[in-house]
Design goal:
Length: 312
């Protein structure tokens, strides 16, 4: 679809970081965006003029209202890892998409998903959502594209990582130092979602996005050092320590769900799960994730430093 023909996009999850990046990019490109929220007006993020629909994913009528007159949809699930809750969310989305007749749904699974089943809720609820969407849309004429991202660079520009990086050159993250990972930014994710909404030849596909660049912990630290202009060293953070810190921000249940990914990776299972692909997804979507050092150099790290001279 041409950028000159505006889409009307129902963005599920736009009040979160990933969905918010998608909503802002769509608005920048003059597409109309609506999202569902339970937040009050004072709590809602600025999404470039997106319209908010008050409601809940668990309520089928609310989701139908979100999808009214939509031509496309972008979906990322909230940080909920209860099986039946996620099944309800996905079923309501599939029903609303089918009934409204949107042309294409792009589902961001929020993580890579192992081929074989696991006992990790963060993987299995996202696999379940994909299955429910596929089954719910089958035969409807609504196209589905699934994107499976690796790990987000924006996780490192945060109150948990930013100060240690800016002040001390310490990059602590709950992945083993030798785990090769294709890091992407929220902006690169949004570009991939936008491409998946509009590109020809991707309907029905599941794409591991992230490009072909895979970095170990030490290689990631080297890229950060280039971007920051200072020495940086990588410290593999124990997943339980990560989980405890995250629980203070998002609550213990959501933190346990997110941390399940890192416990899985620390166990040695699926060592290549988060690695870059052969570049086929980037080719199919005609996107090119920014190199890590370039992304790092663009971030205002001085906000985490004691003063502006501590980061050059």
């Amino acid at each position: 679809m041409s950028d000159h023909i505006p889409m009307r996009v129902a963005v599920v999850g736009a009040t979160g970081f990933q969905g918010g990046a998608v909503a802002r990019l769509l608005a920048e490109r003059n597409h109309r965006v609506r999202t569902l929220t339970r937040k009050s007006e004072s709590e809602r993020p600025e999404l470039g003029g997106a319209a908010f629909v008050l409601g809940d994913l668990a309520n089928a009528d609310d989701v139908r209202h979100l999808f009214e007159r939509a031509t496309h949809a972008s979906v990322v699930m909230p940080l909920v890892y209860d099986t039946e809750t996620v099944r309800t969310y996905a079923r309501n989305i599939a029903d609303a998409a089918r009934e409204s007749g949107v042309r294409r749904v792009v589902y961001n699974s929020n993580t890579r998903v192992p081929e074989a089943s696991t006992n990790v809720a963060a993987f299995e609820t996202r696999r379940l959502a994909e299955t429910v969407l596929r089954e719910g849309l089958r035969g409807s004429g609504v196209e589905l594209v699934v994107l499976r991202p690796p790990v987000y660079l924006d996780n490192l520009f945060s109150p948990w990582n930013g100060p240690a990086l800016a002040r001390d050159g310490v990059l602590a993250y709950p992945l083993p130092a030798d785990t090769r990972t294709a890091w992407v930014s929220h902006r690169d994710l949004a570009e991939a979602v936008y491409a998946a909404l509009t590109a020809d030849g991707v309907a029905g596909r599941t794409l591991d996005i992230g490009g072909s660049q895979s970095l170990t912990g030490d290689e990631l630290a080297t890229a950060f050092a280039r971007g920051l202009g200072r020495d940086v060293h990588y410290v593999p953070l124990p997943p339980h320590v990560f989980e405890e810190g995250l629980a203070q921000a998002i609550g213990p249940r959501a933190a346990a769900g997110v941390a399940g990914i890192y416990h899985y990776m620390a166990s040695g299972a699926g060592p290549e799960l988060m690695a870059g692909d052969d570049g086929s997804a980037a080719e199919a979507l005609c996107v090119r994730p920014a190199p890590v050092d370039e992304w790092v150099a663009r971030q205002p790290w001085q906000i985490w430093a004691d003063d502006a001279t501590s980061v050059s």
